[in-house]
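Long-time lurker, finally posting.

We've been working with Suppressor of hydroxyurea sensitivity protein 2 (Naumovozyma castellii) and I want a structural starting point before designing mutants. I don't trust myself to interpret raw outputs, so I'm hoping someone here can both generate the C-alpha cells and explain anything notable. Sequence follows.
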Amino acid sequence: MSSDSKTINYSQLFSQLIKPATSGDGGVMDDTMASFLYYLFPRELFIRALSLLESNDMFIYTFQPDSSLPLKESSTTKTFDDKDAVTKTSSDLTSSSKTDPDNERDSNEAEGKKEKEKEIEELVNDVYNEEDQFLHRLIVKPENTHSPPISVDLLNWFCSCSEFNELFHEELKKGEELSNCLIKEIDDMSEFSNDKFSQLDAHSLSRQKYFKFDKCLCHHLLAYSIILRSSPDILRYFTLKNCSVFHLRIDNLDEWLKLHINIVI
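Top reply, 14 upvotes:
Generated this for you. Predicted structure of Suppressor of hydroxyurea sensitivity protein 2:
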C-alpha cells in the first residue's frame, strides 16, 4: 500500500461499499468490494474499521446554530452511557397531555421517528455539501471506561489513540522533516485527483496535499474516512439504516461548550 500512487481512488471505492438502492439487493454491504478493500490495508485495519462502524461507539457532533430558535430554547444532550439522544424544547416542557391513548402514542412515536430521520438527513447533506461552514467533532468511545474518548480529526489527519501516536513517533525518530516524510504535495493540476481520502487543505485551487496514510493510519481514521470521505449514501446507511453511528446536531452554543469540556477535552 502506498499513498504516493493516486491511481487508486479510495473515496470512490469506499462509496461502492454499500450496494445502491436501485439494485435488487440495494442497501446491503457489497461483499466483493469489502473483500477488495480488506487487501488494500495492512494489519487487518479494514476489518477493525468495519467492526468499529458497526459497534455503536462512533459519534459525530455537528454544531449548527438554528437562527430561528431563541437562545437556550433547544438543547441536545448525549453521553456515551445513554445511546438515545434526548431533545427537549420549551414547548415540550409546557405542553400537557390529559389523555394518552394507544393511537396517539403510536402517532407520536411515528412522528418522532420521522423527525429524527429528517434531522439526520439534513446533517448528512451538511457534512458533504457545506463541511467548511460547520464545526464537527468525531468521537469514539474508548474501550477502557477510565480513558478519555478518542478524538479523530480528518481535516488534519490526526487521532488521539495510542496506535496513531506510536506510528507518528516512529516517523519522528527518523529525523526527517515532517513535511517531506508525511505529506505529499501536488502542484501540477494535470495530476490532481478527486480522491478525498487523507486529503489536506481540500479547498486550495492551486495545489493538493495528501497525508501519506501508509505511514500513519489507525482504524479510527479509516472508519471515519469510509463514511465521511466517500458519498452521502454511505453515511446515510450507517446513521439511518444501520443506526450504528450516531450523528447529532447541537444548535446551542452552551451545549457545544459543555461537550468540549465534559467529553471532547
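Before you design anything, note these points.
The longest strand covers residues 82-89.
The beta strands are 58-63, 74-79, 82-89, 135-140, 150-153, 158-159, 183-186, 199-200, 208-211, 245-250.
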